[in-house]
Amino acid sequence: MALNTIIPFLLILQIGCTLAQEKVWSDEEETTEYWMEKGQQELREALERENLNKLTAKNLIMFLGDGMGIPTITAGRIMKGQLHNQTGEEYQLAMEKFPHAGLSKTYSIDRQTTDSAATATAYLCGVKTKHGTIGVGGKVERLNCASTTGQEVDSILVDAFNEGKSTGIISTVHLVHASPAGAYAHVVERNWYSDTRLTPDARNEGCSDIAEQFYDSSDMITVALSGGRSFFRPTHVTDEEYSLRRGERTDGQDFIARWINDAEEGENRKYVWNKQDLEDIDPVTTDRVLGLFEPESMDYEIDRDQGLDPSLSEMVEKAIQILRKNEKGYFLFVEGGKIDQAHHDTNAIRAMHDMAAFDDAIEKAVSMTSDSDTLMVVTADHSHTMSLGGYSWRGNPILGRTPSDGVAYYLADDDKPYTSLLYNNGPGYQGGLVPVPAGTREDLRNVNTSDSISYKQQTGVPSASESHGGEDVAIFARGPMAHLFHGVHEQNYIPHAMKYAACIGSNKDHCMATLTVAEDAADGTEEYNVLFLNMWLDTTAASLALYVQFVIVLCLAFLLLFLVVVFLRASRSVKSNSAELHQHEPSYRNSYYHDKI
User: Fold this and answer.
1) In sequence order, which ranges of 27-163 are alpha helices (DSSP H)?
2) Same domain, yes or no, for 455 and 479?
């Protein structure tokens, strides 16, 4: 068939598909007035943010979506919207409601696209380092234990603890994984989870594994909730949940038992391993909590035993209830780590459900805190190679084929449909569940790509594990000093800005004065910030406080005046009664006198 014949034929098919598509949007959306008003509403909201929140952050919460690149956020938005019976595209995630946003450059010293260890060192410790290393500077050599000495760098968690704040770590992977380890560990190999995983040289040179380092640092950590029981226990200890599982330590150390026994006199510590025990914790009377809910990583959200294992939201809720008792505030690190693991398996359905659960946890934290004293930052350590493409209809299932009806015009050149979500590389190269001959792609016409939890999205390059993506990742922020996240940042900038906002660490010059004057570059006006009860009040807040004081003083004045009037009236009444009594007193006396005669 000639090319000039094929092209009109394809155009007719496309037009036919457009006409046949089910309408899922409202009539209002077809009007220009709808989008004009929507744009104006967003502009009004943006203008309301002109008054920057320059208060001091009492509390700091960092949410880390492991592997949560921008395509994951977009697909997660659609997925969560569709879980709420919407088309999905118009939905707004909790993190997307934050007033300030920026981008983070995720490269490490030695890698264009790096791992969760080097990135954790950046966003928690404030320095970039080498691939595969945690909590150390860039002069170390991976796997070289001796190179650690002198290269250790402390995290924002340590700085918060040193200022008297409570601290917490939550992860849906396990407690000694790269991201949470960035808060307390210093290692030149991210996989040194327990002593059995140390190299002989590392043992001989005295390097500690990550689980041991957690125990050594546990006096600084108020709440820790994750997986990873087996890394803390010796081989002779049987797991509480799985009778055939045992610890993996060969040094005989049981750091869970030691943690429990380390409780000081009068200190109420709780070790928990299931949802019910976590729910039973009284946050008022409990001082410290260690919760390890699986021998290694916790389950994906879609696979989670809802009666046995807590959700990320439930862990966040309990942690905040305990941490907020501290009058000096707290720092909490929360990782949605299973997003990353699902992506490595090119298993988009699990990644999207964990993404939705991660956003639910953010929503929970927002409902329990105030942006007047809590700086909340949401970001990612790196991206993945997942992409969202094709020309799917509005409301098409995000995990489905593009488009959902599989019209010929939208088929690939091999005459087979494809999904909206695809990966650059990974184990889904052949696609689907059924093995196919090398070099051919599985036909997805009869494959349930939307609901099958085992389906792996197809990829362009075969590999046992899908790789990370190297593009910038998002930063969302709300609360005091959230405007410090405003453009494209180096990833190691994040903890510097958070510490500045909370007046912790070395940068405290702005916290010492009670009055500061900042020149507004836009119009040359001066903006005053007043420190009151350890809270910075901007012009608007200070004005409101003065009005409140004025009303209180006025009310007190009226109350005083009222009391004076009441007192004067009471005095006059007493005098009047006294005068009347004196007026009648002689007649009483005369009557008495005559009676005597």
Assistant:
1) 32-48, 70-83, 116-120, 156-162
2) no
DSSP 395: T
Percentage of the chain modeled with pLDDT above 70:
85
How much is the pLDDT for 414? 84
CA–CA distance from 248 to each of 194, 196, 239, 295 (Å)?
Answer: 8, 7, 11, 10
In a domain, 376, yes or no: yes
Which tens digit of pLDDT belongs to each residue from 428-481?
887 555 555 666 888 898 899 999 999 999 999 999 999 999 999 999 999 999
Could you give the CA distance from residue 347 to residue 186 in angstroms, rounded to a whole number? 32
Residues 6+ apart with CB under 8 A from 103: 472, 473, 474, 475, 487, 488, 489
Please say whether the beta carbons of 484 and 494 come within 8 A: no
pLDDT at 296: 98
Residues 457 and 475 grouped into a single domain: no
237 plus 285 within the same structural domain: yes
**Whole domain around residue 152: which residue ranges?**
59-385+469-506
383 is catalytic: no
pLDDT at 518: 35
- At residue 588, the pLDDT reads 45
Task: Report whether 63 contacts 358 (CB < 8 A).
Answer: yes
Helix (H) or strand (E) run with residue 493 in it: helix 493-502
**5 has a pLDDT exceeding 70:** no
Is the same domain home to 120 and 67?
yes
Residues 249 and 344 in one domain: yes
Strand 383-384 with 269-272, pairing = unpaired
Task: Point out the catalytic residue in the list 116, 166, 383, 392.
Answer: 116
Whether the CB-CB separation of 220 and 263 falls below 8 Å is answered with no
Domains contained in the chain, number: 3
Indicate whether 448 and 551 sit together in one domain: no
Q: What is the model's pLDDT at position 17? A: 45
Q: What CATH number does residue 210 fall under?
A: 3.40.720.10
Same domain membership, residue 580 and residue 488: no
Q: What is the mean pLDDT of residues 546-572?
A: 84
